Q: What sequence folds into this?
C-alpha cells in the first residue's frame, strides 16, 4: 500500500474515532441534562399530588371517620378527569399493596408498579416499556392509622426520543464531514509524500547506473534537507565512479601499451632466432639478425628495469635529506657526460643553496632530463641547467635549443610508453618510460614536471624541490 | 611473383617480415608509418598488405578505410584480445597475426589468404614434379602420374620446396615436419629423406649439406 494512502487512512480513522467519541459525549450530556430536568419536574408533580392527596384525606377525616376505598376511588376518578390522560398515570394502593384505584393502562406492568412501591418514598424508577420509557414514583401516605401508597407514572418519550433524534442527526453529519475530509486528507497526504516518491525514483535511477540524476529539492524542512544531502551523496558517488572509470581506463591503456612494448622485441627475438637456427644464411644476414636479437633483448632488459623502478617508486617513500644544489648538479652531470656524444653541459652555479631531496632519485631525474635535452640535437650543442627560487621551493630548469615538441604531444608526453618520435626514440634506446619515471620522482618531491616548448626553437623542462635554509637544519628537525 | 606491402613502424619487425617473405619467394616493400603507407597503397601495386595496428601518423584501423578492399589485408597486432581480433576482421581484414609470431606461421597465413583470393597458387613445381599443397597430391608432369607419399614425406617435401636453395638444419626440419623437438637422434629424418629421393628420383637434387642438414637445389 502506498505511504500516502496509509497516512490518509490513519488520519481518517483518527478523525472518525474522535468525532464519534465527541459526538456521543455531547449527545449524552444533552440527554442527561434534559433527563434531570424532566425528573425534577415529575418529582415536583408527584410531591404536589401527594400534598393534594393528603389535603383531601385531611378533609375527609375531619368528620372523624377514616375514609374508605370508595371515597378514594372517587377522588382518583375525579383527579383523572381533572388532569386528563396525556402520559400520566395515578394509582392508590392500600398498605398491603392491594389496588384501590388505578388508571394505568397495560403498558406498565404490575411488577414494575410494585417495584416502585418497594423502592420507597422519594425514590424513582425509570423502566423501559413497550414504545418508550416510563418514570415511576411511589409515596407512602398515612392517615388515621391507615397506610396508603400513591403511585405516579410519567411518560418519558419526549426525553428519550430527543436523544435518539440527536444521535441520528449527529451520525448523518459526521458521515458527511468524514467523507469530505477524507478526500482532502488523501490529496494532502499525496502532496506531502511527493518528495519521498521523487527520492525513491531518483535513487532507483542512480542504482541502475544513471549517476547524474539529482532530486533538486530546495525546501528547508527535513525532507528538503534529506533531498539535499542525498544530492550531495549522489555527487560524491558520481565523482568516485568517474575516478574509478578513469583509473580503469588508464590501467587498460597502460596494459595495452605495455603489451605492445613487450611484444615488439619478443617478435624480433623469436623471428630472427628462428631464421638463424633454421637456415644457413650468408654472414651479412646472420650479422643483421644477431644484431637485432641483441638490441631487442637489451631493450626488453631496460624496459623491465625501468618498469620495476616505476613500481618501486610508487611503494617506497623517498629519503629526503638536505643536499647542496651544486652537489646534485655535479653528481648528475658526471654520470651523464659519457653519454652526451659531444653535447656540452652548462650549469648555472648554485652557491650554497640547499634543497631537500632524495639524492639518488633527484640525480636520476636530472640526468634523464639532460639526456632527453641532448637527444633533441640542440643547435648550440649544449644543455643549459639553471635554477631559481620560488617561494619555499627551488625550480631547476633544463633548457635546450633542439627540435622542440609539438604542442599536441606535450600533454601526453609523461604517459608511460608514450614517444613523440618512436623510431628515433627506439634508435637511441628509449623505452618510453623515462619521463613517466621523472614525473613520478618530481611528484615524490612535491611537484610536477613543467614543459615549455616550441618546435624548432627548443624545450625547457623544469621541476621544483623543497628549499632548505641551512644544511643541518632538517637534520635537527629529524632528531 | 606476388608483391606484398609491409606496413610496420618497428624497423626490426619490418625487416624480419621482409626477410621471411622474400625467402618464401615474395617481393616486398616496406612503409614505416601510416602516411607513407597511404601513399604506397594509392599506387595499388600490391597483392597483399600486412598491416600493423599501432602506427604513428594513421592507425591501422584508419588505413583500413583507405584501402577499402583494394587489396587483401593481414592485421599484425600485439593485442590478443578477442575484441581486437573481431574488430579487425569486421573492418574487412582477411586474417590477423598476433605478435610474437614465428616466420613459418606468417608465410602460411600469407599463402592461405592469397590462395583464397585466387592470387596465389597452390602449385609448387620443381624438376618436373608438381605439388598441390591443398589437395596434397604429387604429380610427375611428363607422364601425368601421381606419386604416393606418406603425410610425413609430403610435409618434408613441402618444407624443402618452400626453402629452395637454402640449407636447412636437421633439427629444424624435424621439428617442422614432426612437430616438437627431436628426441635424441634424427635418424628417422634421414630415412624419410632417402625414401623421398627414391620416390621422386631426386637423388641428386636433395643435397646433404655437411654438418648442417639438407637442401633442395634450385632449378638451373
A:
Amino acid at each position: 500500500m502506498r505511504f500516502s494512502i496509509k497516512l490518509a487512512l490513519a488520519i481518517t480513522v483518527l478523525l472518525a474515532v474522535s468525532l464519534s467519541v465527541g459526538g456521543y459525549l455531547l449527545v449524552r450530556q444533552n440527554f442527561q441534562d434534559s433527563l434531570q430536568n424532566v425528573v425534577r419536574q415529575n418529582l415536583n408533580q408527584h410531591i404536589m399530588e401527594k400534598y393534594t392527596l393528603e389535603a383531601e384525606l385531611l378533609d375527609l377525616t375531619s368528620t372523624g371517620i377514616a375514609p374508605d376505598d370508595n371515597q378514594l376511588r372517587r377522588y382518583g376518578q375525579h383527579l383523572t378527569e381533572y388532569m386528563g390522560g396525556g402520559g400520566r398515570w395515578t394509582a392508590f394502593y392500600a398498605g398491603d399493596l392491594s389496588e384501590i384505584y388505578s388508571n394505568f393502562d397495560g403498558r406498565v406492568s404490575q411488577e414494575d408498579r410494585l417495584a416502585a412501591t418497594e423502592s420507597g418514598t422519594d425514590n424513582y424508577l425509570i423502566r423501559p416499556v413497550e414504545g418508550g420509557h416510563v418514570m415511576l414514583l411511589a409515596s407512602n401516605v398515612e392517615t388515621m392509622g391507615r397506610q396508603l401508597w400513591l403511585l405516579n407514572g410519567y411518560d418519558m418519550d419526549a426525553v428519550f426520543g430527543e436523544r435518539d433524534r440527536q444521535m441520528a442527526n449527529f451520525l448523518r453529519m459526521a458521515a458527511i464531514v468524514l467523507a469530505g475530509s477524507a478526500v482532502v486528507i488523501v490529496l494532502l497526504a499525496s502532496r506531502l509524500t511527493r518528495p519521498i516518491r521523487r527520492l525513491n525514483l531518483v535513487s532507483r535511477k542512480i542504482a541502475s547506473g544513471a549517476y547524474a540524476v539529482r532530486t533538486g529539492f530546495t525546501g528547508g524542512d527535513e525532507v528538503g534537507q534529506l533531498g539535499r544531502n542525498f544530492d550531495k551523496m549522489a555527487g560524491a558517488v558520481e565523482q568516485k565512479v568517474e575516478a574509478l572509470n578513469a583509473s580503469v581506463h588508464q590501467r587498460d591503456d597502460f596494459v595495452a601499451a605495455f603489451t605492445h612494448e613487450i611484444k615488439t622485441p619478443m617478435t624480433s627475438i623469436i623471428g630472427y632466432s628462428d631464421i638463424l637456427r633454421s637456415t644457413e644464411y650468408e654472414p651479412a644476414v646472420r650479422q643483421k639478425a644477431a644484431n637485432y636479437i641483441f638490441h631487442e633483448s637489451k631493450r626488453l632488459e631496460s624496459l623491465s628495469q625501468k618498469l620495476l623502478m616505476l613500481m618501486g617508486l610508487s611503494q617506497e617513500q623517498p629519503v629526503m635529506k638536505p643536499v647542496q644544489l651544486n652537489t646534485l648538479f655535479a653528481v648528475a652531470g658526471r654520470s651523464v657526460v659519457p653519454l652526451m656524444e659531444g653535447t656540452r653541459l652548462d650549469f648555472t652555479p648554485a652557491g650554497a643553496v640547499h634543497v631537500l631531496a632524495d639524492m639518488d632519485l633527484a640525480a636520476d631525474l636530472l640526468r634523464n632530463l639532460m639526456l632527453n635535452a641532448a637527444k633533441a640535437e640542440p643547435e648550440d650543442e649544449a644543455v643549459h641547467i639553471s635554477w631559481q627560487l620560488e617561494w619555499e621551493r627551488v625550480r631547476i630548469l633544463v633548457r635546450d635549443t633542439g627540435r622542440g615538441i609539438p604542442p599536441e604531444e606535450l600533454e601526453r608526453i609523461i604517459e608511460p610508453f608514450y614517444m613523440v618520435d618512436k623510431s628515433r626514440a627506439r634508435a637511441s634506446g628509449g623505452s618510453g618510460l623515462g619521463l613517466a619515471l621523472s614525473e613520478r620522482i618530481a611528484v615524490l618531491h612535491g611537484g610536477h614536471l613543467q614543459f615549455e616548448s616550441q618546435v624548432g626553437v627548443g624545450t625547457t623542462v623544469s621541476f621544483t624541490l623543497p628549499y632548505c635554509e641551512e644544511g643541518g637544519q632538517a637534520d635537527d628537525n629529524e632528531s | 611473383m606476388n608483391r606484398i606491402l609491409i606496413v610496420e613502424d618497428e624497423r626490426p619487425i619490418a625487416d624480419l617480415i621482409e626477410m621471411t617473405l622474400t625467402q618464401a619467394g615474395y617481393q616486398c616493400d616496406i612503409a614505416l608509418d601510416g602516411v607513407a603507407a597511404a601513399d604506397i597503397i594509392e599506387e595499388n601495386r600490391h597483392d597483399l598488405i600486412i598491416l600493423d595496428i599501432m602506427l604513428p601518423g594513421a592507425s591501422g584501423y584508419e588505413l583500413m578505410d583507405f584501402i577499402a578492399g583494394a587489396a587483401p589485408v593481414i592485421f599484425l597486432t600485439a593485442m590478443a584480445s578477442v575484441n581486437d581480433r573481431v574488430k579487425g576482421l569486421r573492418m574487412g581484414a582477411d586474417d590477423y597475426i598476433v605478435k610474437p609470431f614465428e616466420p613459418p606461421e606468417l608465410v602460411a597465413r600469407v599463402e592461405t589468404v592469397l590462395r583464397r583470393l585466387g592470387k596465389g597458387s597452390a602449385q609448387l613445381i620443381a624438376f618436373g614434379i608438381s605439388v598441390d599443397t591443398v589437395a596434397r597430391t604429387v604429380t610427375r608432369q611428363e607422364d601425368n602420374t601421381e606419386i604416393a607419399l606418406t603425410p610425413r614425406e609430403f610435409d618434408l617435401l613441402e618444407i624443402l620446396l618452400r626453402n629452395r636453395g637454402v640449407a636447412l638444419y636437421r633439427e629444424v626440419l624435424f621439428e617442422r615436419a614432426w612437430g616438437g623437438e627431436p628426441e635424441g637422434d634424427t635418424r628417422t629424418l634421414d630415412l624419410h629423406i632417402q625414401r623421398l629421393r627414391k620416390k621422386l628420383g631426386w637423388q641428386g637434387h636433395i643435397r646433404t649439406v655437411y654438418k648442417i642438414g639438407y637442401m633442395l637445389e634450385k632449378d638451373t
User: Anything to note?
Assistant: Residues 3-116 of chain B form a domain with the Rossmann fold fold (CATH 3.40.50.2300).
